[in-house]
Amino acid sequence: MWTRALLKANAKTVLRRSYGRVFLACLVTAVLTGGLNINYNFGSTSADPAVDFFYTVGSALPGGDVAALILGTAAVMLGILAAVLLFILGLLVALLFVPAVQVGEARYLLRNRGEDPGFGTLFSAFGNGQYWNVVGVMFWMNLRVFLWSLLLLIPGIIKSYQYRFVPYLLAENPALDAARALEISTAMTDGEKLNIWVLDLSFFGWHLLGTLLFGLGGLFVAPYTHATEAELYSALRAKAIASGAVTEAELAGPSLYD
User: Fold this and answer.
1) CA angle 242, 245, 247 (to 5 degrees)
2) Could you tell me the pTM of the whole model?
3) What is the pLDDT of residues 7-22, one digit of tens each?
4) What are the UniProt keywords, alphabetically (predicted)?
5) What's the gap between Cα 170 and its chain centre?
6) Contact yes or no for 214/39 (Cβ under 8 A)
7) How far apart are alpha carbons 189 and 158 in whole angstroms?
8) Residue 246 to residues 114, 186, 241, 251: CA-CA distances in angstroms?
9) Which of 126, 164, 183, 191 has the fewest CB atoms in 10 Å of its CB?
10) What distances in angstroms separate CA 75 from CA 48, 85, 87, one per listed residue?
11) What are the distances in angstroms from CA 64 to CA 58, 137, 138, 226, 236?
12) CB–CB of 164/185 below 8 Å?
């Protein structure tokens, strides 16, 4: 039976010998997945600098306002095109890149419990022969959470807790299909979701402290919370194996990263 105190104590033990590299791994993951949110305000600027620039240039050309209107319209159209292209690029990154990095981070955290994983472990999902399966399972998981969230906020939150360990399961066995990965995670969190929520809530003070220094403080808290989650997964993994919900061989997987 796991307790919050036990998980956190284990996480601290792991971090005493590996805080630096776990910090770096969490930082790189945050940067690559968009989890790094630092806000700066350097003063007000024009909302449409490109339009202002082209309007100024156009006003100086023969035709005055007409040239300015044409160039200003062109600037708006270019801006819209750039926004569409950036949206498509962001969508592709969110669907094809971010999930693989998240699974790689989970594998890094699991391996770090007992060894010194190479930094390349963060990107191991891209070269394991099961990349498209990993991406597909993560997409299906996120889609289900999103659809449940459309009903009401609470069902979406419950589903997010229910499927919380899918990245860790894929980290151990990237060949798991979506149905089985969701089934195992559901079994692992059955009767534990409230306890997991309380565990998350216990980090509130740390997260509040992490908002200091323009949000940079959160970077130093992340290794602690992530290492604790890896301990939680390991505890619930053992429970699931003991109950027969999954086997050790199934989690070892037919296709390994290394």
Assistant:
1) 70
2) 0.83
3) 999 999 999 999 999 9
4) Membrane, Transmembrane, Transmembrane helix
5) 14
6) yes
7) 10
8) 22, 11, 5, 8
9) 191
10) 9, 15, 18
11) 6, 57, 55, 60, 71
12) yes
